[in-house]
Design goal:
The complex is a heterodimer of chains A (312) and B (228). By secondary structure, chain A is mainly α. In chain A, 68% of the residues lie in helices and 0% in strands. The chains are: A mainly alpha (312), B mainly alpha (228).
């Protein structure tokens, strides 16, 4: 069990350290592609620090939900961080890593974030929560089928076992490549990015996630921002360790193996974050009624993957 | 190259084919649609080449070369030329099915074909690898049909027709006799050529309904004759 405790501490520290960096990196990449200088790579850390020092303001209509939602969101994100190995896989992980449980833990955070948006009683928060839940209701079936397809490919529902198998290389897992597109679509959806949502807009017509947290302020807003950044990093971690497992779970003694794995993950994460920036810059935000098309595509590819696994 | 490696590469090509099929169904931008079709054909050509490497039959090599010349170069070039003259950049008109429902129907088609062929796969002597190829090939034929009847613009219907033909070719790779394959390819390509030529000949801003409107005034000639 001590091995798992070491894993938990290292994983959480890595998540907390890298999550804001990749948010900045996506913004930097977008700015670069638009010919702007853009914010520095440490800007996300400065912004979070600034928010932590600011006073929290609550609407007079709000209840305890508004007060607890940020904490539940950050706790659920941190618990989820124990389910997604980023650098290595511990020897003993009993009770952790179930892929279905991971989805539910992430859903709990989102649920309370949406409740927080409704709780303030403002038109914007309610509208944001409503839109976020509408999109969630469309994407959840896709996410379930997608993770079922991953479980089908590796014959396991435990993410630790799946990633351990993937770390040996993807030879013989041709059908897994079909899932790369659905995984990227789910990553963009769950992290409220273009073409599903625009994280930088504050226009009434286009806001989804931002409208939901518009009533949050100070420390609470910082916690919600960190929770979103962690969620993005965890989904990125699944993609990275499934499709680019080089440097992951090295059988080298501590701490050299951990440091190499950290370096490798940071580089691969930077590459994926830059790719997200490229995607965000090269496509337009989709209208709400065009989103089912994107999700249907993911659903189609996930089901065909399952069929390939049945047949081949 | 070992047989196992060739089989793995064919599986990767099949994966690409599935992704590109999904994109063909859901694309609205015509240039992107034509490029996706060209890529679809390129992957088909790669599968033929891998079969040639695996089985050594020259006919697969010819099929691969023929596919590259006609479907990767000639037909996309003709379609792009047509599209340029049409000055239509997106296809937003549909009969019955929108892209989202088309994707779900495609999934339904794949499942139905999978179930339909499961009853006769032993009679056909198909191993799981060939069975998947047959299922995808036949599904592509039906998906091509679906694109033909669900889209209105002729250029998109033509793409549906060509996807259907790619399905026939894929089916033949896994189950058919090669001379039959060549016959079907030539026949289908001729028909596709006729379809493209008709677009080029008839004036461009066209759907089937547009043709109808254009031909309708000729009725007046006969009316005048009757009145006289």
């Amino acid at each position: 069990m001590s091995g798992f405790i070491a894993f938990a501490i290292i994983n959480v520290v890595v998540v907390m350290a890298l999550a804001p960096l990749y948010i900045s990196l996506v913004k930097k990449m977008k700015a670069f592609l638009q010919g702007r200088k853009g914010p520095g790579l440490l800007q996300a850390y400065y912004s979070l620090w600034k928010l932590f020092k600011k006073e929290v303001v609550y609407s007079s209509n709000s209840s305890f939900i508004m007060r607890v939602a940020p904490y539940i969101s950050i706790i659920s994100a941190l618990v989820a961080a124990l389910f997604v190995p980023l650098l290595f896989i511990p020897d003993d992980y009993s009770g952790f890593g179930n892929i279905i449980l991971l989805l539910y833990i992430l859903a709990v955070g989102k649920f309370f974030m949406a409740l927080g948006g409704l709780d303030a009683g403002s038109a914007f928060g309610g509208m944001g929560s409503s839109r976020e839940m509408s999109i969630s209701s469309m994407v959840e079936p896709v996410v379930i089928v997608l993770f079922a397809a991953i479980a089908f490919v590796f014959r396991s529902t435990n993410l630790f076992e799946i990633l351990r198998e993937a770390s040996h290389g993807l030879g013989g897992y041709a059908s897994l490549w079909l899932l790369l597109i659905p995984l990227v679509i789910v990553l963009l959806t769950e992290t409220a990015r273009i073409p599903i949502d625009n994280p930088e807009t504050h226009l009434e017509l286009t806001m989804v996630h931002e409208a939901m947290i518009l009533e949050q302020s100070g420390r609470n807003l910082a916690l919600l921002e960190i929770a979103s950044a962690i969620k993005q990093l965890l989904l990125m971690g699944i993609i990275i360790n499934l499709f680019m497992p080089m440097g992951f779970n090295l059988q080298v003694l501590f701490p050299a193996g951990i440091l190499i794995a950290f370096g490798a993950f940071a580089i691969k994460g930077a590459f994926l974050a830059a790719s997200i920036g490229v995607i965000e810059s090269s496509v337009a935000k989709l209208r709400l009624f065009r989103l089912p098309n994107l999700f249907a595509l993911s659903f189609f590819l996930s089901v065909v993957t399952i069929m390939m696994e049945v047949l081949l | 190259m070992t047989i196992q490696l060739i089989d793995e590469l064919i599986k990767v090509c099949m994966v690409l084919l599935v992704v590109l099929t999904a994109l063909v169904i859901s694309r609205r931008n015509l240039i992107s649609l034509i490029n996706t079709y060209a890529l679809h054909s390129l992957v088909l050509s790669a599968i033929a080449f891998l079969f040639f490497l695996g089985e050594g039959a020259n006919v697969f090599l010819y099929a691969s070369i023929l596919t590259i010349i006609t479907k990767l170069w000639l037909i996309p070039a003709l379609l792009k030329r047509t599209q340029k003259i049409m000055k239509i950049y997106t296809d937003l008109e549909y009969h019955y099915l929108h892209p989202t429902s088309s994707i779900f129907l495609s999934l339904f088609i794949v499942i139905i074909v999978f179930l339909a062929f499961s009853g006769i796969k032993d009679d056909l002597g198909l191993d799981p690898f060939n069975y998947f190829g047959v299922v995808m090939g036949f599904s592509l034929v039906l998906i091509g049909f679906m694109i033909i009847f669900s889209r209105i613009k002729i250029i998109t219907k033509t793409i549906g027709y060509l996807v259907m033909e790619n399905g026939v070719v894929l089916l033949s790779f896994f189950v058919g006799e090669m001379p039959f394959l060549i016959e079907v390819m030539v026949l289908m390509d001729l028909l596709a050529l006729v379809a493209i030529t008709s677009i080029l000949g008839f004036g461009m801003n066209s759907s089937i309904e547009e043709f109808h409107k254009r031909l309708n005034p000729f009725r007046n000639w006969f009316k005048k004759v009757d009145e006289k």
